[in-house]
Known about the structure:
The protein is mainly alpha-helical. The chain has helices at 17-27, 34-46; strands spanning 5-6, 13-14. A hairpin with a 6-residue loop joins strand 1 and strand 2 (13-14). The longest helix is centred in the C-terminal third of the chain and has 13 residues, at 34-46. Bound molecules: zinc ion (ZN). Zinc ion is lined by residues 7, 9-10, 12, 23-24, 27-28.
Amino acid sequence: MTDVHQCPHCELRFVSRNELSDHMALEHPRAVDDDTAELDDQQQRGTQR
Ligand SMILES: [Zn+2]
């Protein structure tokens, strides 16, 4: 049984779902969630690190 999670934004694959979400947060921070994308964008502009 090969349970592999492939990133929907690139061709990388990860064994665990945690690694995939971690990768997406790092490599595709804006494309992670369409629902909260706009809100996050506005919040990030107000509170830049
Ligand atoms: Zn990716």
